[in-house]
Design goal:
This protein has 2 domains: 113 residues, Hypothetical Oxidoreductase Yiak, Chain: A, domain 1 (Orthogonal Bundle), CATH 1.10.1530; 193 residues, Malate/L-lactate/L-sulpholactate dehydrogenase, NADPH binding domain (Ribosomal Protein S8, Chain: A, domain 1), CATH 3.30.1370. Helices cover 39% and strands 19% of the residues. It is built from 11 helices and 14 strands. A 7-stranded mixed sheet has the order 2-3-4-13-5-8-9. A 3-stranded antiparallel sheet has the order 11-10-12. Strands 1-14 form a two-stranded antiparallel sheet. The protein is globular and about 55 Å long. Bound molecules: nicotinamide-adenine-dinucleotide. Nicotinamide-adenine-dinucleotide binds next to β8, β9 and α10.
């Protein structure tokens, strides 16, 4: 999964450099470090679409005043095992940290908890946050919605975002199980990467043209729509994400704006997000859930592979292996990402990112 034509960057160097860049945008140092930690985790796991390249997306939003550089998260409601936070239209990662940690604390007391966030922005890769709760022994679920770009299954009226969904679970003697997807066939940022690489075709099943016909033509796809993962099934899951992260979180949903942000429609930055945390030790003796998950995943990984398949994996396996490799060898950023980050650095008067 590592970019074959990429440039290696030391994760520590990238962390310090990105923090400096965010500081230059007015982000307080503790917040800048948290944002960089989540972006670098995505890079390390090979989710480059949601890694440090997002600095290029976030910087103009901060400079335009649409993304608060200093994220102030407030509590709107806090009742029993549930809470609603307001993300202050700042960095989604900062609101997500607070929401998932609050959900974990509540679940450790109440057994199960739901924490939603309104007036937030892009969380980045959701798996970073579900894994955070799973490391505390909890089964965690996360959902986030976004601007209207993707039609309902069978339609061409844009109503939804790529509506990501993640779950993570503790597993004895190993890292948590982490599943982390857009409910569309791919995350929208992956088309941006194809465009940045100047590629004229995209894989089958990613997108339709503007009339809803499946297309492999990159240009036609830019005028069209992402397809749902697995057709009506991904659509149904995406609608659950919209329900949890939009309707339940007092956030925008469909084309309804429900935000203080002046940026609306397809370019809308305000998103909602919801975290659910479940403490398995309420139903099972302490530690038994994680031990059984270990046994379950051992069965999964030792399954007989189908013809043409090397091995059967659990979600998160590939990412974990790549993370270990990139921690040793450096993060393999795409050349186009390094170029975009370099011109952002010049723009902001920050030193150039040092690559190997
Ligand atoms: N914050 C947002 O608004 C937003 C929006 C869209 C996507 N995203 C993020 O984009 C990222 C990428 O999403 P995506 O849909 O392109 O991911 P993807 O299609 O690459 O799927 C990744 C998931 O599938 C699992 N997987 C892949 N191959 C597997 C195999 N052979 N066996 C078992 N499991 C396997 C991976 O371990 C991982 O959990 C995610 O981190 C998601 O949170 C965020």
């Amino acid at each position: 999964m590592a970019n074959p034509t990429g440039q290696r960057v030391d994760p520590g160097v990238l962390r310090t450099w990105g923090t400096e860049l965010l500081r230059k945008l007015g982000v307080p140092v503790n917040q800048a470090e948290l944002v960089m930690d989540s972006l670098i985790d995505a890079d390390l796991r090979g989710t480059y679409s949601h890694g440090s390249r997002l600095l290029v997306t976030y910087a103009p939003r901060v400079r335009a005043g649409h993304l608060a550089s200093d994220t102030k998260v407030t509590v709107v409601r806090d009742v029993g095992a549930m809470a609603l936070l307001d993300g202050g239209l700042g960095f989604g990662q900062i609101a997500a940290y607070q929401a998932v940690d609050l959900a974990a604390e509540k679940a450790l007391t109440a057994g199960v908890a739901v924490v939603a966030v309104r007036e937030t922005t892009h969380f980045g890769a959701l798996g970073y946050f579900t894994a955070r709760a799973a490391r505390r022994g909890l089964l965690a679920i996360a959902a986030q919605n976004g601007p209207p770009m993707v039609p309902a299954f069978g339609g061409v009226t844009p109503l939804f975002a790529t509506n990501p969904f993640s779950y993570a679970a503790p597993v004895a003697n190993q890292d948590p199980l982490i599943f982390d997807i857009a409910t569309t066939a791919v995350a929208g940022n992956k088309l941006q990467q194809v465009l940045a690489r100047g590629e004229t075709t995209i894989p089958n099943g990613w997108m339709t043209d503007r009339e809803g016909r499946p297309t492999r033509d990159t240009l036609a796809a830019t005028q069209g729509f992402l397809q749902w993962a697995g057709g009506h099934k991904g659509y149904g899951l995406g609608l659950l994400v919209e329900t949890l992260a939009g309707v339940l979180a007092d956030a925008p949903f469909g084309t309804a704006e429900h935000t203080r942000s002046p940026v609306s429609g397809r370019g809308r930055l305000a998103k909602g997000g919801t975290f659910v945390a479940i403490d398995p030790s309420v139903l099972l003796p302490e530690g038994v859930f994680a031990e059984r998950m270990e046994a379950l995943l051992a069965e999964v990984r030792s399954s007989v592979p189908a013809a043409g398949v090397d091995r059967v994996m659990a979600p998160g396996d590939l990412e974990r292996e790549l993370r270990d490799e990139q921690l040793r060898q450096g993060i393999c950023l795409e050349l186009s990402t390094v170029e975009q980050l370099s011109s952002l650095a010049v723009d902001l008067g920050v030193r150039t990112l040092q690559t190997a």
